Amino acid sequence: MATCFSPQAQTLIVAFMMSLLLPLTTSFTVIVSDSGNQSALVDGPQSGFMMNKNGARTEAREQEAVYDIMRATGNDWATDIPDVCRGRWHGIECMPDKDNVYHVVSLSFGALSDDTAFPTCDPTKSYISKSITKLPHIRTLFFYRCFSYNPQPIPSFLGQLAPSLQNLVLRENGHVGPIPTEISNLTSLKVLDLHKNNHNGSIPVSLGRLAGLRSLDLSGNKLTGSIPGFSFPVLNVLDLSQNLLMGSIPPTLAFCPSLIKIDFSRNRLSGSIPESFGGLKELILMDLSYNRLSKPLPISIRSLNSLEALILKGNPMGATTLAREEFDGMKSLMTLILSNTNLHGPIPESLGRLTSLRVIHLDGNHLNGSIPTNFKDLKNLGELRLNDNQLTGPVPFGREMVWKMRRKLKLHNNTGLCYDANSGFEDGLDSTFDSGIGLCNSPEPSSARTVQHLSAIDGAIMPSTTKESSAAVHEASVIVRLLQQTIAIVFFLIFISR
Predict the structure, then answer these.
(1) What is the pLDDT of residues 115-156, one digit of tens each?
(2) How does it sit in the membrane (predicted)?
(3) Do you find a cis peptide bond into 163, omega within 30 degrees of 0?
């Protein structure tokens, strides 16, 4: 690779760091460079001095193809560059063959952030040129927000880029229509990312032919129908969130043993979490929130000892009562979000034994009984929402724990909760914060109980509707941070597995 491009490891690190520097509301796929000796290309950095000394040059037909591709995206300036592989612009990568002829292996377009220097697109007239099919060594295509004002289907001719293409990323481009089945011809794909376009129709069953996929992101579209029974042996990330998918979650996904992240949130899925998911021993994040799941958690989920985030908010769950040992075995769990899932009965004591927990949301349910006393042992807990339940009895938290959580401790709308005067609970509260509960054995209701529909946020008492809006924003930021952490882990695991 020429010196104008980073060495392989540096490229990976820069791509990853760039994903962390983007706004919190955005997450990007990390594209993994591949060092396979495909098409007899010579891997490794090639200095400009070596190119000049050895008479290196870009293959002529590929250079003309790049000119066409650049013109199609509104970058006519590229035709003034006499050698595109030696022109030193970001967004193009080349590699030499044994005869020191350079071939185009990666093209990237779109302004990811203010710090990136990929060629931008003219969104009013850009399109994907068929000249891409004249790049026989192309491994990565990346287009971001390039066709927003000129919506067009994904061209079927991209299916002709087999067997070289490994990473196809078409994010937020306004693509319309169904996902073309021709993509299934790209049997060397490792990353397929079609996030936030306007795709409709069903997910092509033929995508199951892409046995080498490590990341499949079809989120933020208008896809309908059911989730196919995929079984990708090396898949790490499966994101189908924010679509219109229906039906049950296929149990065959348990045959994707390398899964680290599953995100099916904000669809119309029904039924239950498959019992077979207990075999996903590498799973770190599972987000099934805002669906129509109506059955209790399977017993097998207790065996997911690598799971760090379980997010099921907004599923009806059919008046579920959690078993005392419900979460035994989930030793790595850090985030548990079960808000508004129609939970009944007491809070399981097994939660208090998960010492890695940092976030617990059990609000908006029908939980009764007392808060387990072993919750005081959750030293890493930084956020706890138990509001809007039917809990009773004393709160088992002292001054230090309450001070640590402060406004992230939500207990209001539990008319039976109280705190012991000697516990130090009240001492840990911010002077402007109303916890919504009063002293145990108090002859008169605390004034806090008369304002259960209010909560203090940023030093002010705000109506419950505003409170819920603020809580939703905060929860979104928590989830985004979790997704960024998951992407970091995916990046690391993919890197070391090569």
Answers:
(1) 667 999 998 899 999 999 999 999 999 999 999 888 999 999
(2) Single-pass type I membrane protein
(3) yes
Q: How many CB atoms lie within 10 A of CB 443?
A: 5
Alpha-helical regions (H) of 437-463: none
Query: What is the Cα–Cα distance from 246 to 225, expressed in whole angstroms?
Result: 6
Q: Which two tokens stand for residue 311?
A: 């997010």
DSSP designation for 150: S
Q: How many helices (H) and strands (E) does the chain have?
A: 5, 28
442 band by pLDDT with thresholds 50, 70 and 90: low
Residues contacting residue 42 through CB under 8 Å, at least 6 positions apart? 95, 96, 97, 98
Residue 432: predicted pLDDT = 64
Confidence of residue 426 (pLDDT cuts 50, 70, 90): confident
Q: Determine contact, residues 305/331, Cβ cutoff 8 Å.
A: yes
* 138-147, 340-349, 444-453: range with lowest mean pLDDT: 444-453
Going by C-beta distance under 8 Å and a sequence separation of 6 or more, which residues neighbour residue 331?
305, 354, 356
Cα–Cα distance, 294 to 310 (Å, whole number): 16
443 dihedral zone (left: phi>0; alpha: psi -120 to 50; beta): alpha
What does the block give as tokens for 6? 């980073």
Strand pairing report for 292-293 and 285-287? unpaired
429's enclosing H/E stretch is none
Query: Do 269 and 291 touch, CB atoms closer than 8 A?
Result: yes
**Dist CA 495 CA 351 (whole Å):** 34
What's the pLDDT at 288?
A: 98
Q: Which two tokens stand for residue 412?
A: 């209001």
Token match 């690779």: residue? 1
Digit-coded pLDDT (tens) for 12-52: 333 333 333 333 334 444 444 444 444 466 654 443 333 43
311 beta partners: 287, 337
**What separation in angstroms does the CA of 34 have from each of 9, 142, 297, 314, 402?**
10, 15, 39, 40, 49
Sequence-distant (6+) residues with CB within 8 A of 440 are: 394, 418, 419, 420, 421
* DSSP string of 98-125, one letter each residue: TTSEEEEEEEEES--STT--PPP--TTT
Which pLDDT score, from 0 to 100, does residue 441 have? 79
- β-strands 460-463, 454-457 pairing: antiparallel
**What is the residue type of 24?**
L
| pTM of the predicted protein model | 0.82
Give the tokens for residue 57. 């040059």
